[in-house]
Write a structure and sequence with these properties.
The structure is a single chain. By secondary structure, the protein is of the alpha+beta class. The protein has two domains: 133 residues, Diaminopimelate Epimerase, Chain A, domain 1 (Roll); 123 residues, Roll (Diaminopimelate Epimerase, Chain A, domain 1). Helix content is 19%, strand content 42%. It has an 18-stranded mixed β-sheet that branches. A hairpin with a 2-residue loop joins strand 16 and strand 17. The radius of gyration is 18 Å and the shape is globular. 46% of the residues are buried.
Amino acid sequence: MKTDIYQVDAFTNELFRGNPAAVMPLNSWLPEQQMQAIALENNLSETAFLVPLPEQDDADFHIRWFTPAIEVPLCGHATLASAWVVFNRLGWQHDRVRFRSKSGPLAVTRRSDDWLELDFPNLSFERRPTPELIRKALPNAPEQAFYVPNDTNYMVVLGSEAAVIEAAPNLGLLADLGNQGLIVTAPGTQCDFASRYFAPGAGIDEDPVTGSIHSVLVPYWAEQLGKQTLEARQFSARGGVLRCELRGDRVAIAGQAAFYMEGSVYLP
């Protein structure tokens, strides 16, 4: 069986920056083990799979995301990349596409400035003592952290953008968190807030740019900074820029995309 595959760099307008994602539109779902094997073969942070829902009123496509190791409940950059493929390769005639996902309904709008705006949930979080494993992996982590139950992440707030950029957690220790990841964030000097994201237990040592964590970062920093509209930067080696807005129980996360390649996958 031959099926199309695309690769798009998300949250950037330059090739080889932002976060690369593979996108595979399907007519129907492949076996789960096969989709996981494809994601491992692609060896990108995420591979997104899309199946059209032509007779549904609430969604246009069903979307699922796989890292090289696991399926994840929410992924921003691969959703943005998927929307780019829908708008530019699948003959979509509208400026908005709706996805059904494990995290509920999602949508992406193509704005007049050609930025793509994700409509994501506002994820709740709760304050907890920082787990000892994280304190060992990141010695300058504060005593209190935030846990995100709907996205299985911990978030720690450092004192400065420089501390985020210079963070060098022990990835071997963080891998023991399993499918949980670690968000590191601080107020920004080049932006409203800075972040990085590490999830070695889920097959991602450091994610270049992570849209989904902004479902937590935006409500947190909106409250801390007293503003609803924020510019965010993720300071990985590839880096990325996100324009965000808190809208009640939803979070708007906008970014650009750079198209890299398209091809075919041949499956048995």
